[in-house]
Amino acid sequence: MAQRIKSGGTTVLWDSKKLEKEVALKVNKKLKLAAETLVTRVKKNISIGRPASKPREFPHVGVTGDLRKSIFWDMRGEDTAIVGSSIIYSVFLELGTVRMAPRPFLGRSLREHRPKIKQIFAK
């Protein structure tokens, strides 16, 4: 319910519930935009072709580009976006295994993209 607030000779109608909804909607839109742009960045960082990637490099994927195609984003609730891959071996690339050093691409892309994400939320 809106409240009337008087200050000096001015009366302001303050509707905190409406304001909360408007802010949540704007944050949600910016979160979706940030997730979309991060997915684009991750896909650009994954190269297609040979030779195989070296430890700590972005992955080089085969000619099918399955890893690149598997990158997605999704909303979990109103205030959480996730970016990930639907391919099981992406975890091995990101974190490494006992026989393979990591080829991080999700976390590294996020760190590189952080200034752009901040810019999206600052607007």
Task: Quickly describe the structure.
The protein is of the alpha+beta class and 123 residues long.
Any descriptors?
123 residues, alpha+beta, two-stranded antiparallel sheet, two-stranded parallel ribbon, 4 helices, 6 strands, 47% helix, 20% strand
Describe this structure in words.
The chain has one domain. The chain is built from four helices and six strands. It has helices spanning 16-45, 66-69, 89-95, 106-122; strands at 3-7, 10-14, 47-48, 60-61, 71-75, 81-85. The strands form three sheets. A two-stranded antiparallel sheet has the order 1-2. A hairpin with a 2-residue loop joins strand 1 and strand 2 (10-14). Helix 1 (16-45) runs antiparallel to helix 4 (106-122). The longest helix has 30 residues, at 16-45. It starts with a strand and ends with a helix. The model has no long low-confidence stretch (mean pLDDT 90).
Break the fold down into its secondary structure elements and pairings.
Blueprint lengths: L2 E5 L2 E5 L1 H30 L1 E2 L11 E2 L4 H4 L1 E5 L5 E5 L3 H7 L10 H17 L1
Helix pairs in contact: 1-4
Q: Could you give the distance between the termini?
A: 29 Å
Secondary structure class reads: alpha+beta
**Oligomeric state of the chains present here:** single chain
Question: Helix count, per DSSP?
Answer: 4
Topology pattern, helix = H, strand = E: EEHEEHEEHH
Helix percent reads 40-55%
Overall number of strands: 6
User: Can you summarize the main beta sheet?
Assistant: 2 strands, antiparallel
Number of domains: 1
What's the mean pLDDT score?
A: 90
Strand content: 15-25%
Strand order, main sheet: write it out: 1-2
Q: Judging from the principal axes of the Cα atoms, what is the shape?
A: elongated
Unreliable segments of 5+ consecutive residues: none
Using only C-alpha atoms, the radius of gyration works out to 21 Å
